[in-house]
């Protein structure tokens, strides 16, 4: 029986998430499967993968062929690196402890990269929020300036009207006296 490691689609339209399954090559995409070894959600940033590492490694070592997408997922999770390291142990290039140390170093480096990505995204979010706040402040200042100009113009017009009224009353009083 030829087995494949592939994705089984779930979710609604335009919001798919997948189960990573071991299935016979002849089985339909969403049909019967041998074992479920994880899930993959591409809707998050970065994509969320929940994988049973030991079972995935077992199936890869026993010849199950992954699809292209699953191969990338397994590679990102380190399954292929561990397979490679175990091959080195079998050939006697290094011992099991050295292989585990190399894998842990790779995993720590990958985790540091993910943390840097998350920090970069948080900084970008913060910068965008600060830019929006600054733009909002400028808009508020422009509106306040317009309101102040309008009030000043109204006050000037009122003062001008009062001055004209007082001048008119003075001219009428002067004409009455004369």
Keywords summarizing the entry:
178 residues, alpha+beta, S16 Ribosomal Protein, Chain: A, 5-stranded mixed β-sheet, 5 strands
If you had to describe this structure to a student in words, what would you say it looks like?
By secondary structure, the chain is an alpha+beta fold. It has a domain at 3-93: Ribosomal protein S16 (S16 Ribosomal Protein, Chain: A), CATH 3.30.1320. 64% of the residues lie in helices and 19% in strands. It contains four helices and five strands. The protein has a five-stranded mixed sheet. β3 (35-41) and β4 form a beta hairpin. The longest helix is centred in the last third of the chain and has 82 residues, at 96-177. The radius of gyration is 37 Å and the shape is elongated. The N and C termini lie far apart (125 Å). The relative contact order is 0.07. The model has no long low-confidence stretch (mean pLDDT 91).
Short synopsis of the structure:
The protein is α+β, with helices and mostly antiparallel strands and 178 residues long. 64% of the residues lie in helices and 19% in strands. It has a domain at 3-93: Ribosomal protein S16 (S16 Ribosomal Protein, Chain: A), CATH 3.30.1320.
- Please tally the helical runs, counting DSSP H or I stretches of 4 or more residues: 4
Number of strands: 5
CATH topology of the domain at 3-93: S16 Ribosomal Protein, Chain: A
Query: Which percent range fits the helix content?
Result: 55-70%
Give the terminus-to-terminus CA distance: 125 Å
CATH superfamily of the domain at 3-93: Ribosomal protein S16
By CATH reckoning, the class of the domain at 3-93 would read Alpha Beta
Radius of gyration over all CA atoms, rounded: 37 Å
Q: Which structural category do the helix and sheet elements fall into?
A: alpha+beta
Helix/strand order = EEEEHEHHH
Q: How do the strands of the widest beta sheet line up side by side?
A: 4-3-2-1-5
CATH architecture of the domain at 3-93: 2-Layer Sandwich
Principal-axis shape = elongated
Q: Give start-end ranges of low-pLDDT stretches.
A: none
Please state roughly what percent of the residues sit in beta strands, choosing from under 5%, 5-15%, 15-25%, 25-35%, 35-45% or over 45%: 15-25%
Described by strand count, sense and barrel closure, the largest sheet is: 5 strands, mixed
**What's the rounded overall pLDDT mean?**
91
